[in-house]
Design goal:
This protein is mainly alpha-helical. 77% of the residues lie in helices and 0% in strands. The chain contains 21 helices and no strands. Sodium-phosphate symporter.
């Protein structure tokens, strides 16, 4: 039965590619969609942390042994078992490829569980399935998006209500150590608490790993607090250099005549408020003053304040000396629009941490879905007898991680657009993406540590919807969300039908 091993190995890799194009795209949808990371860097982070997560192999035991009633497969049924597990791979692979083509984010966990159910029921009947386990897993599918949304909505509400108001930059820097401490705690905890057996981290008792993880988060938070002045200066330097470069580009275009009226505006204030000023010109003349700096990220600024805080004008007064201009803004506020951009830079950095956490969570929870059935087949082939709880070789886990990277690079853009850009009418901003990533991935990580194969897809989509509701309830594309939910609900039964049909055919053909 070497051909079964070969076909299953290839199918396992293809299923991993489908997972990368769909499931991992869910994980990185908010990151790439908010332009926090390019696709290239998303792939780099995915390859590293997916592999690290896969090495833990937390849930493959649930998928391979917890679903089938013990004792239903007896010695002498090795061929049936191997063919069945091959069909468990083939059915979900077909459905995942089809769903990715339709840009629907579905769950590989759902598909593989459905595939196992279809094969086992086809061979042994309904009594061979541990329906209590299926019920527990199914419950987690419902709970995943709800808890993902419940967790992300309050976090983003706090950020929006108390940080993205008034002096946005100052408030963001004040809360930066706290938010960073929480993020680092989750990222470090994902690696350290009941971590990879390869690094013997699974032997560290919880009484030691949990306090250590919290301690690391607190220390990092304290260090970040000490570096706030430096971070502020670097943000200001970045904004000043960007404004000066933009000014030079506009001047060059103006000199060559390659600029229209809107592009010829040279100050940041004019660029940000041209439309508002044109619409309110009569009001400006009557009141001799106007609101020109309005932003959802902060309070209002009058013209005098904008004059003092305009980067381009201050830079010109300092002969475009970056250091002198930076010193000026050590004691003066930048415009609200610039504060917003500086705040976004901080959240983008935090989202990179969260992307790592999400990728690791997915590796710990979902990579084994693609390689678990192949590992079971390989174990039977090598040992010559049934042992469905055999340890998954690391080279098989590596196949899964490699397939995920290939799938993400080749086809991930479809689902990335659905999750990152299309679920909400407005494009996600970094603060929203950060809230979605941190809460969704944290929930999946905790569940995977408990051995519950929850859906990364459901949790992250729920988290994105949660922040979308806080931002604007009517801004959520409920019709598209309905299509996504239909994809969730149909994944298990369709995968089960495909797996059962292929098993019945191959059983008749081969045996």
């Amino acid at each position: 039965m070497l051909w079964i091993v070969i076909v299953s190995g290839i199918t396992s890799f293809v299923l991993s590619c489908g997972m990368g194009a769909n499931d991992v795209a869910n994980s990185f949808g908010t990151v790439v969609g908010s332009k926090t990371l390019s696709m290239k860097w998303a792939i780099v982070i995915a390859s590293i942390f997916e592999f690290l997560g896969a090495m833990g192999d937390y849930v493959s035991g649930t998928l391979r042994t917890g679903i089938i009633v013990e004792g239903f497969f007896q010695p002498g049924e090795e061929t049936f078992y191997m063919i069945g597990m091959m069909c468990v791979l083939l059915g979900p692979t077909i459905w995942l490829i089809f769903s990715t083509y339709l840009s629907l984010p579905v769950s590989t966990t759902h598909a593989v569980v459905g595939g196992i159910c279809g094969f086992v029921i086809s061979l042994k009947g309904y009594k061979a399935i541990q329906w209590m386990t299926i019920g527990r897993i199914a419950l987690s599918w419902v709970v995943s998006p709800i808890l993902g949304g419940i967790a992300s909505a309050p976090l983003y509400f706090v950020i929006k209500k108390f940080i993205l108001q008034g002096n946005v930059e100052k408030r963001t820097l004040i809360f930066f150590p706290i938010i960073t401490a929480i993020t680092v705690t989750m990222v470090f905890g994902s690696l350290f608490i009941e971590g990879s057996p390869a690094l013997y981290l699974d032997r560290v008792p919880l009484a030691a790993s949990i306090p250590t993880t919290i301690g690391v988060g607190i220390i990092v938070g304290i260090v970040c607090a000490c570096f706030i002045p430096l971070i502020k200066r670097q943000l200001h330097k970045r904004a000043i250099k960007k404004a000066i470069e933009k000014q030079h580009e506009q001047q060059a275009k103006h000199e060559t005549g390659e600029v229209d009226i809107a592009q010829s505006l040279t100050t940041e204030t004019e660029m940000n408020n041209t439309v508002a000023n044109l619409e309110n010109v009569d009001n400006i003349n009557e009141k001799n003053s106007t609101v020109v700096g309005e932003s959802s990220y902060g309070s209002l600024e009058d013209e005098d304040e904008l004059e003092k805080n305009d980067i381009t004008k201050v830079a010109e007064e300092n002969n475009e000396n970056v250091e002198e201009t930076t010193k000026y803004f050590d004691s003066h506020e930048m415009t609200i629009e610039t504060q917003k951009e500086n705040s976004d830079v901080i959240y983008k950095g935090l989202m990179i941490f969260c992307a790592s956490l999400t990728s690791f969570s997915h590796g710990a929870n979902d990579v084994s879905n693609a390689v678990g059935p192949f590992s079971a087949i390989y174990s039977v082939y090598v040992q010559g007898h049934l042992k469905v709880d055999a340890f998954v070789p690391y080279w098989i886990l590596f196949i899964g991680a490699a397939g995920i990277v290939v799938g993400l690079a080749a086809f991930g853009s479809r689902v990335i657009k659905t999750v990152g850009n299309n679920l909400n009418k407005k494009q996600l901003v970094p603060s929203q993406g950060f809230s979605s990533q941190l809460c969704g991935a944290s929930f999946v990580l905790i569940a995977s540590k408990m051995g519950i194969p929850v859906s990364t897809t459901n949790a992250l989509v729920g988290a994105v919807i949660g922040v979308g509701i806080v931002e604007d309830f009517s801004g959520v594309k409920w019709k598209l969300l309905g299509e996504v939910v239909i994809g969730w609900l149909t994944t298990l039964p369709i995968s089960a039908i495909l797996s059962a049909a292929m098993f019945s055919f191959l059983k008749w053909l081969v045996i």
